[in-house]
Amino acid sequence: MKIAPSILSADFGKLAEEVKVICNAGADFIHVDVMDGHFVPNMTMGPMIVEAVSKASTKPLDIHFMVENIPFFVDMYAHIKPEFITFHIEEEKHINRVIQQIRNYDIRPGVVLNPATPVSLLEYIVADVDMVLLMSVNPGFGGQKFIPSVIDKIKELRELAIKKNPNLLIEVDGGVNDKNAKLLKEAGADILVAGSFVFKSNDYKKAIESLR
Ligand SMILES: O=C(CO)[C@H](O)[C@H](O)COP(=O)(O)O
Q1: DSSP 173
Q2: CA of 193 to the centre of ligand 1 (A)
Q3: pLDDT-based confidence at residue 31 (cuts at 50, 70, 90)
Q4: Could you give phi then psi for residue 210, rounded to 5 degrees?
Q5: Nearest-angstrom CA–CA distance, 108 and 84
Q6: What is the 3-state secondary structure (H, E, C) of 106-147?
Q7: Pocket mutation for ligand 1, best pick of 8, 31, 39, 196 (most atoms within 8 Å of C-beta)
Q8: Ligand 1 lined by 191 (C-beta under 6 Å)
């Protein structure tokens, strides 16, 4: 199981230090939530801050766009060279075009589903992406309560991936903690994103290990 701490819950007063510490504590990826104040009712990090995060990090970045006008954001953040860029299918009309736009930068593309968006919408997309991120909260804020229906969605997506894209990575984000991590793994998740569970703990390393 790979763990991607979400720096949304880090102490932004010492962000670079937090990134270094979380890398040393065993993070596999640094999960970066980019929010525009339109797609979600919150705003977070512009490209200059994300570039600073990337420079402080010894682990690959995993950027999750919670934004409108996705192609504009892809062009604006691509020079940072994250491992993954994921975007919401609820927002984008031309999904295959954006997947190709991301691949053209040698970045691995993924799509994101909100908790109420069905897995069936991925039937003709799943073979073209490297990752699907299933949200287990409505996006916008850290520290929200886990929505358990994501467990069935992970199982359904794993079944679809076996048929259409066996290498697909399934990531889950929102309310992840040491109580639900095992269930998420058993359902078929590969990467867990955790913000408050890790950053509000006294021992980041122990928190990451308990999720793994
Ligand atoms: O995408 C997000 C919010 O939109 C965050 O990554 C997510 O909520 C992580 O925070 P927590 O683990 O505290 O729920």
Answers
A1: E
A2: 7
A3: very high
A4: -65, -30
A5: 5
A6: CCEEEEEECCCCCHHHHCCCHHHCCEEEEECCCCCCCCCCCC
A7: 8
A8: no
Q: Output the pLDDT for position 200.
A: 96
- The amino acid sitting at 198 is V
Domain coordinates of the chain in residue numbers?
2-211
Question: 52-89: per-residue pLDDT in tens?
Answer: 999 999 999 999 999 999 999 999 999 999 999 999 99
Annotated binding site for a divalent metal cation: 31, 33, 64, 173
Reported as a single tens digit per residue, the pLDDT across 86-130 is 999 999 999 999 999 999 999 999 999 999 999 999 999 999 999
* Interface confidence: ipTM more than 0.90: yes
State the fold for domain 2-211. Answer: TIM Barrel (3.20.20)
